[in-house]
Each structure stands twice: as C-alpha cells, then as structure tokens.
Design goal:
By secondary structure, the protein is mainly β. The chain folds into two domains: 274 residues, Methylamine Dehydrogenase, Chain H (7 Propeller); 196 residues, Peptidase G1 (Jelly Rolls, Sandwich), CATH 2.60.120.700. It is built from one helix and 35 strands. The strands form seven sheets. The protein has a 15-stranded mixed beta sheet that branches. A four-stranded antiparallel beta sheet has the order 1-29-28-27, with no helix packed on it. Strands 2-32-31-30 form a four-stranded antiparallel beta sheet, with no helix packed on it.
C-alpha cells in the first residue's frame, strides 16, 4: 500500500488565497504573573500579557426590564445563581462559543464558580472568548479573587468543556477543568477562604481591573449537567440573572432552566456590530456562476433559531429542482432550510460533540457523527456501524459516504480511517507522524478511494483518488478546516477558516478570502451538482456561491 502525502502546490484550476494580516496583539481575558507556555504560544508574537479578569457580580439596583420577571439584573453577569448554602461544590458542562470579531476590545467569559454574589470572594474556572483588531482568541483559565487569574491552554470554539470546583477539607479546594474534545485537563489544589453562600453558572462581561469591558457577541451557550453540592440544583432555588448595558437594554439573557434536562441556555441579545459578515443574500461579487434565491415555487429563505454552536452543513436537491440544506450544532440540534426536512437529531440525549452531518443520496435523510465515533442515521440514512465505545488515538473529525449511501468512512485527527458498510478501506495515515492534524475527507468518484487534507493544506491520496495539488508547501493565512469532493468528479476543494477557497480540478466559484467572516468558517459543503458550494460560519451564517441557493442562516 502506497500512502501519498503531497506538499507541493500543484496545478490549481482556480485559486484564491485570502490575504489577512495580523494587526496588533490580542488582548487577554485574565492575568497571570507567568503565563503557561501553551497559552503564550497561542498569542501573536510580541503580544502583551493578558490583563482582564473576572469581577464579583455588579447588581443594578432599581433596574426594570420590560417583559422580564427576573429578580436579578447585573451589569456584568448573566446566567443562573443559587444562594443559601453553604456550597461545597459546583460543576457543569458547556461548549466553547465563537465570538463575532471586533476591531475594539470585547470579551466574554463562560464559567462556573462559588461566591461573588453577596461577597467579594470568588473561586471559579472557565473559558475566555475575546476579540480585538478583528481577531479572536480563546483559552481556559482558573481564578480565586482577588488574585489574578491563571491562563491555561488554548481552546477552540465547539470544544466541550467540563469543570468543577469542590472543597476537600475546610479552606482546601480542588479546581478541575477538562477539554473533552482535545483531551486536555487541569487539576489544582488551592488553599482559599470563602463562605460558600452562592453557586453560579455564568456568562460574564469581564473587567480589565478598572472597568467592565464590552461584552463580545458570543451567540448562545448551553450549560448542562449542572450540579451544586454533588446534586442537580432544585429549580425553585435558582435565580436567573439578566445583563444590561448603561441604557438598561438587555444584552445577555438566560433562557428557562430545564429541570428534566438539567440544562439552560444563555444568549447574547445586545447590538450586532455593523462590521458583521453575516449575509442575507448570496455573495455576487466573487461568484462566476449565478447564485441567488431559489425558484419562486420552492421554499424561500428563512432563518432558523438554534441553541448551540453550528458546526456542519449538508446540502440536498429535490427532483423538482428545489434546494435545501441542514445545519447541525455541536450539541446535536439539526435545523432544516428550504426543501430539506429535519428527521431527528441528538439534542435530547448526552453525547460527544457533533462533528459532521452527511446527507443521503436521495436527500431524504442524513447521518450525524460525533467526536467519539458514534454514528446515527435519520430518514432513509441507515447507520451500519460506528466506533462508539472504542478507544481512538485521535478524535473523529469528519465523515464521508459512498455514492449509494450503503456505507461510509470516519476519519480521525491522526488520519486513521474506519470503514463501514460497502465503504472499502484504501489506507490511512494513522501510523505516520503528521506535521499537522487531518481536518477533512472527500470520497473519490465511485467511492473507490478518498482524499484526506491536513490543516496545513497537505493532501493524502488513497485508492483511485488522484493528486491534483495541495497547499502543503505554502504559508497559509489561516488553517484549512475542511474538504469536499466535486460531485461531478472534477476534483476537490478545501476551505480555510478565513473563507479562502483552494480549488484543484473542481471549478472555483468565489470565496470570502478578501472579507473574512467574523466568526470563522467551520466547514463547507458542495451543492448537489457541484456547480456551487456553501460555507458555514461559526455564528451560523451561511454563505452561498455558484448555483447554491441561499435559504437562511442558523
């Protein structure tokens, strides 16, 4: 078996390289006297040490929010608090949100903690989501006020986090935070005195030590698996907290606590920056095949609400020529647009983050795949096996189906391939040392091979998949995040997180490279005939090119 790893530029049918310069250093969310090496490495060279930090809840006395019956209003916290106690532990799970990039400093913190409501002590751990100069930065951290917080390691939007704070003996606490997606974890025993009069699950507008910062547009965060004192909190004891700005407008709002699911979502409701790249029409300046709205007889564009972080998109087309697509969140919610129908999802059950949605050949169903290898089929998409419950060297990052829909491949970040049904195994990179992790798979015509792509744009070919070029030897402005094969058998395309498209053999219909989306592109999907494609932004924005019809955003 010959494994071909290609790093040469090759011959691209059309190529647009996004030109994005790093303009200034990213501000930090929390301060540490000596930043951890992994955190420092995530920053732009020469960036200053982070200076932002959490702050006890700042209540707004006398604020009245029309239409809200909330008993607590704050200028820096939003979420749920439980008072009484004494509280000896708190824990929860959430998915790291993507923030909308901004030129001015903005930030949000997602965390669990004890105290800080009726006192100035607070022990906590969480993730930071920050933006400045049009760039974004994400990382895990822990903190015990009034001491400065400690930054841990970089995280990625869509990562599932689990965290807990618990007392072991009086004034002795154990802080634990784990990135379930990247398998990184941190545990620290600290000596800290705090009364334990409240437990919290919070989205925060942090402080720079002098004033509260502008809250970043974080979209939606869902807290699940809530626990205080090692048990789910009674719904009656939870108090919702709205965050308001200086004009008393609500800018972050928690939804109702679902005691059955032991979860709630908190959503950004503040102003949307004028620089957002979310569009309601198909981009036309860079398309070479006319795109636009669907025919009048087909479903027209309509936005759909989601509770979570959009991560993948799949397209379909009916025999009458009406188009549709599905968007799935990391939490497992599927929303349908246009002619597509939702046949079910994983939003009501516990699972690892969703990483892929693949439509069936008929467009009457789809598969969902999770980071731990679970596969579920809906509609006429039949699941024929998965890696659920098996040890994986690398998390599952993508999926591809055979042309007849009777089989599929799962691929791990190490390039390991898992074949099911009539999907044949043609080789993998699972036993190789890779420069960068694998981020995508695309099937060769007829399902007799496949391409893999790494985040540096290097391409690996197996079976009858022909090498047509790569970006492996070229410095990229942003990493490659996905790959698709042209349904017409003309080649393949890869997409970078800034929306740059690299086409090899397959026609090029435009990109976002000159105007990178604020939330970053998560992945792409071809239109059914290959004469167009979609990109999905981390904020749920959908970008359509060529003959791909724009039908709404999540």
């Amino acid at each position: 078996m010959t494994i071909n790893r290609h790093s040469g530029r090759g011959r691209a049918a059309c190529l647009l390289v996004a030109l994005v310069s790093l303009t200034g250093a990213l501000a930090g969310f929390v301060a540490a006297s000596t930043p951890a090496p992994s955190a420092a490495a995530s920053r732009v060279a020469g960036a200053p040490a982070p200076v932002y930090r959490s702050h006890p809840m700042v209540p707004v006395a006398g604020a009245h929010i029309a239409g809200h019956g909330f008993g607590a209003v704050s200028s820096n916290w939003s979420g749920y608090v439980e008072q009484g106690g004494p509280f000896t532990s708190v824990s929860a799970q959430w998915v790291v949100p993507a923030v909308i990039a901004s030129s001015s400093p903005q930030s949000s913190g997602t965390w669990i903690g004890i105290d800080g409501v009726s006192n100035t002590t607070l022990i906590q751990t969480g993730t930071a989501q920050e933006t400045v100069s049009g760039q974004t930065n994400y990382y895990a951290w822990w903190e015990t006020l009034p001491a400065a917080a400690t930054e841990l390691w970089p995280v990625v939007p869509g990562d599932t986090m689990q965290a807990s704070v618990a007392v072991t003996t009086p004034n002795h606490w154990t802080i634990t935070i784990q990135d379930v997606t990247s398998h990184q974890s941190f545990t620290n025993d600290v000596i800290y005195s705090t009364p334990g009069t409240s437990a919290e699950w919070i989205e925060e507008a942090p402080s720079d030590g002098q004033s509260i910062l502008t809250l970043a547009n974080y979209g939606t965060v869902r807290f699940s698996g809530l626990a205080s004192n090692n048990a789910a909190p009674p719904a009656a004891s939870l108090q919702a907290v709205d965050m308001i700005d200086s004009s008393q407008a609500v800018i972050s709002h928690p939804g109702a606590y679902d005691s059955g699911a032991n979860a709630f979502s908190v959503a950004y409701t503040g102003p949307v920056a004028s620089t957002t790249t979310t569009t309601t029409t198909t981009p036309t300046t860079t398309t070479t095949v006319p795109g636009g709205p669907p025919p009048a007889a087909c479903s027209q564009p309509a936005d759909q609400a989601v509770a979570g972080h959009p991560v993948a998109i799949a397209a379909m087309r009916t025999s009458a020529g009406c188009e549709g697509y599905w968007v799935v969140t990391a939490e497992g919610q599927v929303v349908a647009f246009g002619a597509a129908h939702a046949y079910g999802d994983l939003s009501a059950v516990a699972h690892a983050p969703i990483v892929a949605i693949i439509g069936s050949a008929t467009g009457l169903g789809y598969w969902l795949a999770t980071a731990d290898g679970l596969v579920r089929g809906y509609g006429d998409a039949v699941a024929v096996g998965d890696m659920g419950g098996h040890h994986l060297n690398g998390s599952i990052i993508a999926m591809a189906a055979t042309p007849d829909g009777k089989g599929y491949w799962l691929v791990g970040s190490d390039g390991g391939i898992f074949s099911f049904g009539d999907a044949a195994f043609f080789g993998s990179t699972g036993n190789l040392h890779l420069n960068k992790p694998v981020v995508g798979i695309a099937p060769a015509p007829g399902g007799t091979g496949y391409w893999l792509v790494a985040s540096d744009g290097g391409v690996f070919t197996f079976g009858t998949a022909t090498f047509l070029g790569s970006m492996g030897a070229t410095r990229l402005n942003k990493p490659v995040v996905g790959m698709t094969a042209d349904p017409g058998g003309r080649g393949y395309r890869m997409v970078a997180s800034d929306g740059g498209i690299f086409s090899f053999g397959a026609p090029f219909f435009g990109s976002l490279g000159s105007t990178p989306p604020a939330a970053g592109v998560q992945t792409m999907a071809p239109s059914p005939d290959g004469n167009g494609y979609y990109m999905l932004g981390g904020d749920g924005a959908v970008y359509a090119f060529g003959d791909a019809a724009y039908l709404g955003r999540a």
